[in-house]
Design goal:
By secondary structure, this protein is α+β, with helices and mostly antiparallel strands. The chain has 3 domains: 152 residues, Nucleotidyltransferase, domain 5; 76 residues, Dna Ligase, domain 1 (2-Layer Sandwich), CATH 3.30.1490.110; 159 residues, Nucleotidyltransferase, domain 5, CATH 3.30.420.40. Helix content is 35%, strand content 29%. The protein has 12 helices and 18 strands. Helix 2 packs across helix 12 and helix 6 packs antiparallel against helix 9.
Amino acid sequence: MKHQLIAGLDVGTTQVRLVVGQRVKGEGGDKLQVLGAVAAPAEGINKGVVTSIEDATSAISACVEKAERLIGVQVHEAWVGLNAPSLKCEKSKGVVAVSRSDNEINAEDVNRAVEAAQALAVPQNYDILHVIPVEFKVDNQEYVKNPLGMTGVRLEVGALVIQNLSSQIKNLTKAIQRAGLAIDDLLFSALAAANVVLDNKQKELGVAVVNIGATTTSLAVFEEGELLHTAVLPLGAGHITADVAIGLRCPITLAEKIKIKYGSAKSEKFSKKDEIDISDILTEDNLADESPVISQHYVAEIIEARVEELMSKVDQEFKKIDRSGMLPAGVVLIGGGAKLADIVDAAKKDLRLPVSLGANKHVATLIDKVNDLEYLTALGLTAWGEQYGRGETKGGGWSLGGLSGGAQDAFKKIISLFKP
């Protein structure tokens, strides 16, 4: 059974989450069956970056042990999400001459074109995480989705190259391996999450997945079925908590509870006379010296200001690709930060787009926990492993999430031909 297990590991600043599934045979072929989902407090991680290998290893080990106790089987390897603000997304082009005498494009031609696109100037301290073919051009014919079998003399590919700092990749890899886990592949977290929260129609129309974590917010934008842009912002739900703590002059643990229980991203819902009694929270934390009554309007104002800043940063990323207010399928929010009350309404106002909370659309499961906003990234990593890790082929730096269905099938055949 251990060889059939597929695990997705989401290493965050406050929590390490692991979703374990198993490939089972169904009526329509193989499908993913989720066996369990667990979380453990994170240590030694900040903004997606390992700050202490020893602490990070302990946190990951605790999470893996918890999962093994739950499912009764050892977990040996996992698909791991990467989510650091140092992540870079660059466009690149590769051009090759078609090799066959009859000018029919084969997998080798496509592979050479993508290799040519990969040969961009990467800083010495960066490693390539994904090379994502977005569109092809055969001679003068543009917007080709899948060039295999077509006839032409010149093949050109436009690709997105996602890179991250080598040291950060190595430190995370070291912490995970010391915890006893082998790494199937490292993936950009928002891409993996998009795998389970978006459908093909949304990707075709134009949509963005925004994952609001504790200290980072990552996003992936899709249009015409292809990945258009990615980014990681150094802002998250933890910054909102810190603002509440400063504004109310209270401990950070109390500020977090106030934010979750009484917080809102929409201050206009409350009048300045609206007050809340937090005596029950104070009793739990033994903070008898704190004021038991606070202004709910004031708390909402603090939260609203930080949410506006976060959404303005997201909108700036949309402006980079000329999609500000121009994504018909809107924005899908996931992550623990998306649980904040009224954040959908605030995002609609600030982004001028349809906004909704993410939901698991593709993995049937009886375990409700994996449908939680906080677990969708780990579930996406597991689903990615089931979809692209079948047989002997591994991701190897290729990311297929941005490709249309037909192109995905074609590129699965050539994925193993090169490694970045």
